[in-house]
Amino acid sequence: MIAIVTNTLMPDLDEDGARLVAALAERGIRALPAIWDDPDVDWASYAAAIVRITWDYIDRRNEFVAWAHGTARRTRLANPFDVLEWNTDKRYLKTLAARGAAIVPTVFVDSGAPVPSVSELAAAFPSADELVVKPTVGAGSKDAGRYRTESEAEQLARHLMRLLAAGRSAMVQPYLDGIDHAGETALVFLGGRYHHSIRKSALLPPGGAAVDLEWDEVIAPGEPTIAELAAARIVLDASGAADRLLYARVDLVPASDGSPLLIELECTEPALFLGHHAGAPARFADAIVDWLYSG
User: Fold this and answer.
1) Domain coverage including residue 221
2) What is the pLDDT of residues 118-158, one digit of tens each?
3) Which of 6, 154, 219, 244 sits at 20 to 30 Å (Cα–Cα) from 130?
């Protein structure tokens, strides 16, 4: 018996979770939902715990990391504890960039550190007319905003200060308008192998409005280009954990010249869009079976 780890708002999992449970049942494995912060869950009673929809951790990251650490001592955890700890703060992008991955240019601002002015941020991205502000610990576009550097500088500054005043670290990036036309490409890897991709529409409207949830995204199956596949593999290699990832999603956006840039590497609780590819639930279930018997 294994646990599919979820949150209190989705105690019975989502549609993808149901697909995975059914695929595992066909392989003789009983999988049950388990809420990550439920103190009554006996994690040692499970052969493994697969983190899937723990989306409420963003306001309690320290608690989530402590849970993952404790659970990893009681049962097998996927993805591994050290990956979850590293991947739940987007400052991991610094590591990936230092190891050769092409990321969206980013300025990180830590709480308590000197705060750059809007003019300094604009100077860091001289070709960008708009900047995006978001927390380094977050999900989807929650608490993110898009601002024009000339006409919305005050709103941008307030957004940045609001995050920092709450003790959160922030990140500022140029808004790449190629997203408006091509969207994001999300490449899904299962058991270390590329399986399928989807295209996601842009989420942040102009004018500083932030989107709280990602349910308004337009999502459709898509085929990655050779350049996108190559970029994704570079990202996974740069993570230093490619051979230990049961699942991963590499989100890419186009630079001004069309080359793919990493906007996020999701190794904690990514939507894997299993319903957008007929073979995805079975492939994920097979990857879990292989992982279970490899240990």
Assistant:
1) 92-102+178-273
2) 999 999 999 999 999 999 998 877 899 999 999 999 999 99
3) 219
- E strands, the chain, are 2-6, 31-35, 48-51, 76-78, 107-109, 130-135, 145-148, 170-174, 184-190, 193-200, 219-222, 247-254, 260-266
The three-state (H, E, C) secondary structure of 265-289, written as one string:
EECCCCCCCHHHCCCHHHHHHHHHH
The pTM score is 0.93
Residue 87 predicted with pLDDT over 90: yes
Rounded to the nearest 5°, which phi and psi values hold at 267? -120, 10
192: left (phi over 0), alpha (psi -120 to 50) or beta: left
Burial class of 181 by CB neighbour count within 10 A (0 to 12, 13 to 18, 19+): exposed
Instruction: Indicate whether 214 and 261 sit together in one domain.
Output: yes
* Sheet architecture: strand order including 130-135: 107-109, 170-174, 130-135, 145-148
What the block records as the tokens of 66 is: 């402590």
Asked, for residue 137, whether it belongs to a domain, the answer is yes
Q: Please tell me the total count of domains within the chain.
A: 3
Residue 140 has what pLDDT? 74
